[in-house]
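Exercise: predict the fold of this chain.
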Amino acid sequence: MTFVRILSLIGFLMSGAAMAADPQNPTAHDFTFVGIDGQPLPLKTFAGKVVMIVNTASQCGFTSQYTGLQDLWTRYRDKGFVLLGVPSNDFGGQEPGSEAEIKDFCETNFSVDFPLTAKAVVSGDDAHPFYKWAGKELGVVAKPRWNFHKYLVGPDGRLIDWFSTPTKPTAGRVIKAVEAALPN
């Protein structure tokens, strides 16, 4: 091997580009959703940021939480926070619309401008891999049991906490957890 090739290899290895995710110890950054626009939405895009992932539904008794979610997003997005809505029809068939209908509903009724994914399954055997992983990481009590279940992911991709459906996005303990996790 020539000296130049060795230096190139060392530079490549030091850049981190050669590091593969540890399949034995995954983080949220190892998962990809499909955006509401149909494009891949890899969570590694949000590396270095705090991310709240919330399964949502347009026809749920908790749909008014979109207001609090938008408030949270608006308050912290410039400080390294991302809010990701994951529409799901898992609970009570309360998200029957198409992606275009969901996006229009959220924008029109709640002025939502945080990122949304395409509809995804969040519970059971067919759950999106992120939700299966989160359930294994935090245990069965932390799995979504209804719409508007919230996961908080740290800048390193590790799960920090979870908040059940009735916990409002602007509840004191949610705000405290978000602020504690924000990058300095």
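Check your answer against the key: The chain has one domain: 23-181.
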